[in-house]
Backbone:
C-alpha cells in the first residue's frame, strides 16, 4: 500500500476508480463458491480503506444514500469502523453444501453473518469487513395471531407461543450481495449487457461496472430481505422435519396499513399462522420477506395503477387487472423471482412440505433452484378482503395456483368489480 494513500484520499480530493493504485490496489481476491471461506475471500465494500475494496457499490442497500447524506452534513465520521462486539448471530446457521455452489447462491453472501469470526485475522490486519447478514430473536404481537390463539387454531405452548400470547421468532436480515456472473447466468444473459444496463439505468452511478470488469461482486442499492423463523432454531437447515415456507413480497399499503385492495397482509398472516402450526407439530416454518414494493415497480407506480384501474370505463374489473398495470409500468410484474430462492438455499432448505403461495413464478423459481415442493396452499377464500377479489380472480384466471375455488371465464371476470375511488 502506498504510504501516502490515506493522504491522497483526503477529504476534498476525489479519486476516480480508474486509478487502481489508490482504489482496489490491495483487494483480497474473491473466488465465489469456494468451500474454504478464506479462499472465497472476504467481501469488502466499506470505504475506510479504499485500497482493500473488492466490491462495487456499498453496504446497507438503498440506505447507503442516507449514510452519504450524514457524511455530507458532517454528522458522521467517515473513518468510523463498526465495533462488532456481541453482534454475533444468536444461533448457528450453516455452513451448508449450497454455500459451496457458485451457481446456487448468487445474490447474497452466505458467510455474511459469520464475518466477525471467520475473518478474524483479516479484521485484525486492518481490513474493514462488515457483516451483510445479522441474526437475532424477537417476539411478535399481532392481533390476528391473538385471534388465532383465542379461536383455538394455534395454542400456547410456552415455546413458540408464550403464556402472554407473544410469538417467539428467530429472524435474519440479509443485504443484497450480487456475484454478477452468477446473476447474469440466472437470467440467461451475458455479464456485459447486465453490467451495461445496471450502469446506464442508474444514471452512471457505478462506473466500475464498466471500467473494472475484474470486479465481480456488487452490493446493489436495493432493499434487503428479512427471514422470520418459527420453531426451534436448531432445526434451521434440517430437512428431516416438516418445513413450511411463505415467500412474501413487500406491500406497505396492506402489510402495514391494512389497505383492503389486495390480499398481502391476510396472506402474510396466514403464512405466519401456518408456520406456527408447523412448529407446534415439531417442524419449522420460514417467512421470507422481500423488499419488492408494488411488484418491484415501486409505490408511486402502484398508486398510479390503482387510479387507472378505478377510473377506467366500466370501473375496476378483474378482466383488465393485469392490463392496467402494464399500461402504466410497461410490464405486468418486475419481481423476477429468479434470485428469490437464494435465501432458502442459504438456510439449507432442500424440501418444502407446505408452500403457502399461489404464484407459479415463485414455485417454479424454487423448484428450479433444486428445492423440492411437496404441497402448495393458497390463501383460504374467507381471508380475502372485499376489494381484493378483483386481484384474486384476475390472478386465478391468469393461471395462479388454486385448488379450492377454480378460475372464472372472461365473461364472469368482467363482473368482478372493485370499489370506485369515491366510494
Ligand atoms: Zn398488496
Residues:
Amino acid at each position: 500500500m502506498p504510504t501516502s494513500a490515506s493522504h491522497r484520499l483526503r477529504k476534498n480530493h476525489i479519486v476516480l476508480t480508474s486509478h487502481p493504485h489508490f482504489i482496489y490496489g490491495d483487494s483480497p481476491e474473491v473466488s465465489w463458491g469456494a468451500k474454504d471461506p478464506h479462499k472465497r475471500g472476504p467481501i469488502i465494500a466499506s470505504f475506510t480503506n479504499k485500497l482493500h475494496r473488492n466490491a462495487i457499490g456499498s453496504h446497507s442497500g438503498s440506505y447507503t444514500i442516507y449514510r452519504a447524506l450524514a457524511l455530507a452534513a458532517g454528522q458522521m465520521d467517515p473513518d468510523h469502523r463498526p465495533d462488532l462486539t456481541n453482534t454475533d448471530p444468536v444461533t448457528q446457521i450453516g455452513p451448508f453444501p449450497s454455500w459451496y455452489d457458485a451457481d446456487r447462491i448468487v445474490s447474497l453472501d452466505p458467510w455474511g453473518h459469520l464475518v466477525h469470526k471467520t475473518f478474524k485475522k483479516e479484521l485484525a490486519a486492518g481490513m474493514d469487513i462488515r457483516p451483510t447478514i445479522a441474526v437475532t430473536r424477537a417476539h411478535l404481537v399481532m392481533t390476528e395471531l391473538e385471534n388465532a390463539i383465542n379461536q383455538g387454531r394455534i395454542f400456547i405452548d410456552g415455546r413458540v407461543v408464550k403464556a402472554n400470547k407473544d410469538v417467539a421468532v428467530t429472524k435474519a436480515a440479509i443485504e443484497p450481495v450480487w456475484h454478477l456472473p452468477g446473476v447474469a447466468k440466472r437470467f440467461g444473459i451475458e455479464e456485459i449487457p447486465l453490467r451495461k444496463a445496471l450502469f446506464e439505468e442508474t444514471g452512471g452511478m457505478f462506473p466500475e461496472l464498466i471500467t473494472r470488469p475484474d470486479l465481480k461482486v456488487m452490493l446493489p442499492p436495493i432493499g434487503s430481505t428479512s427471514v422470520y423463523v418459527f420453531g426451534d432454531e436448531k432445526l434451521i437447515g434440517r430437512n428431516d422435519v416438516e418445513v413450511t415456507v411463505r415467500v412474501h413480497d413487500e406491500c406497505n399499503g396492506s402489510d402495514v396499513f391494512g389497505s383492503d385492495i389486495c390480499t398481502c397482509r391476510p396472506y402474510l398472516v396466514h403464512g405466519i399462522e401456518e408456520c406456527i402450526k408447523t412448529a407446534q407439530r415439531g417442524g419449522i416454518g420460514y417467512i421470507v420477506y422481500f423488499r419488492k414494493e408494488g411488484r418491484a415497480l415501486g409505490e408511486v407506480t402502484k398508486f398510479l395503477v390503482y387510479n387507472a384501474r378505478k377510473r377506467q370505463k366500466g370501473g375496476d374489473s378483474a378482466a383488465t387487472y393485469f392490463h392496467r398495470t402494464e399500461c402504466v409500468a410497461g410490464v405486468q410484474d418486475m419481481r423476477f423471482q429468479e434470485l428469490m430462492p437464494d435465501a432458502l438455499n442459504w438456510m439449507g432448505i432442500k424440501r418444502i412440505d407446505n408452500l403457502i403461495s399461489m404464484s407459479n413464478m415463485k414455485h417454479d423459481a424454487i423448484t428450479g433452484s433444486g428445492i423440492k415442493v411437496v404441497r402448495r396452499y393458497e390463501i383460504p377464500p374467507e381471508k380475502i378482503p372485499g376489494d381484493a377479489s378483483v386481484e384474486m380472480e384476475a390472478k386465478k384466471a391468469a393461471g395462479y395456483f388454486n385448488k379450492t375455488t377454480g378460475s372464472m371465464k372472461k365473461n364472469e371476470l368482467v363482473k368482478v368489480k372493485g370499489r370506485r375511488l369515491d366510494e
About this structure: The longest strand covers residues 133-140. Residues 40 and 373 are 31 Å apart (CA to CA). Strands lie at 55-57, 133-140, 167-174, 178-179, 217-219, 225-230, 243-249, 284-290, 351-356, 372-377.
